[in-house]
Amino acid sequence: MAETSLASRLQGTGAHALELDDVARHFGALVALTGINMRIAAGERRAVLGSNGAGKTTLFNAVTGDFLPTAGRIRFFGEDITDLPPHERIRRGLRRTYQISQLFNGLSVLNSVYLACKGVSRRRFSLLRPSISDVNMQQAESILHAVHLDRERDVLVATLSHGQQRQLEIALALAGAPRLILFDEPAAGLSPAERRDLVAILNGLPRHIGYVIIEHDLDVALRVSEHVSMMHNGRIFKEGTPDEIENDPQVQEIYLGGRHG
C-alpha cells in the first residue's frame, strides 16, 4: 500500500521521470539517433523495441551519459542532466544494466549487493566492517529476496548460472534508491523457465520504481510493460499499449518481417 501511495504521489506531481527533447547522436557521418522525443512518467514501465541497429542501446547510452547526445536535451525528474557525467546521474537515482554482464566474480553474491548499496550511500568511504544492523547490509538482504537469490547469498558470483547473473545485475541496479532503471536485454540467453522468473521479478518491483526495458523477446517485453515505443533507423516511429503494438501491421512488418500471428 505504501509503495502504491508513493507512486501515486510522484505521478500526481505531473513531473516526468524522463524527458527527451529532439535528442540526436551522430558518430561522424553515421546518424545513430535523430529527433527522439519521449516522455516517461514517474513509476511507468516502458518497453523500447526495434530490430538490430534501430538505435535502442545508443538511446540508453545517451540517457546514462555513456555517450553525450550530439543535440537535444535530457531531463530527469525536471532537472536537465544532458551534460552530467554518469556518476552524477546515478546519484540522482538513475540506474542501468548492460547487455554483457559486468560483475565481480571473486565476491559473494551478498557482498556484491552490499558494496553496491554502500557505494551510493552517504558513508560510502567508511572502512568499518558492516555489523548485522548495518543499513546497507539489511538493504542488500532485502534486494536478494526481491530478485529470488536468497539461497545463493553466500556463493561466489563466478559459480552462478547465466540466468542468476542476470538476476544479480538487477539486484545491483536496485541498490540505493533508484527512481528509474534502464534494462538492456535482461532476457538475453535465458531459458524459458528463467524468462518466466524474470517476468515475475520485474512485475514484482516496487511501483514507485519505473523502468525502461530493451528486449528482443516480444513476449517478455509486452508482459512487463505498460507502454511501448518502437524504434526504426534511429527514430521512434510508433508508440502505444502492448496490445496496440502487438497487433499493428506496420510493427509486424518491420519488427517481425510480417510473420507474426
Structure characterization notes:
There is one protein chain. This protein is α/β, with parallel strands linked by helices. It has 2 domains: 1-93 and 180-261, P-loop containing nucleotide triphosphate hydrolases (Rossmann fold, 3-Layer(aba) Sandwich), CATH 3.40.50.300; 104-177, no CATH class. Helices cover 35% and strands 24% of the residues. The chain contains 10 helices and 10 strands. The strands form 2 sheets. Strands 6-7-8-3-9-10 form a 6-stranded mixed β-sheet, with helices on both faces. Strands 2-1-4-5 form a 4-stranded antiparallel β-sheet, covered by helices on one side. Strand 9 and strand 10 form a beta hairpin. The N and C termini lie far apart (39 Å).
Mean pLDDT: 88
Unreliable spans are none
Which percent range fits the helix content? 25-40%
Trace the largest sheet across and list its strands: 6-7-8-3-9-10
Strand content: 15-25%
> Quick one: biggest sheet?
6 strands, mixed
The Rg value, from CA coordinates, equals 19 Å
CATH fold naming of the largest domain: Rossmann fold
Based on the coordinates given, report the CATH architecture of the largest domain: 3-Layer(aba) Sandwich
What's the tally of helices? 10
Distance between the termini: 39 Å
Name of the CATH class of the largest domain: Alpha Beta
Count of discrete structural domains: 2
Helices and strands, in order, run as HEEEHEEHEHHHEHEHEEHH
Task: Determine the CATH superfamily of the largest domain.
Answer: P-loop containing nucleotide triphosphate hydrolases
Q: Looking at the structure, what is the overall shape?
A: globular
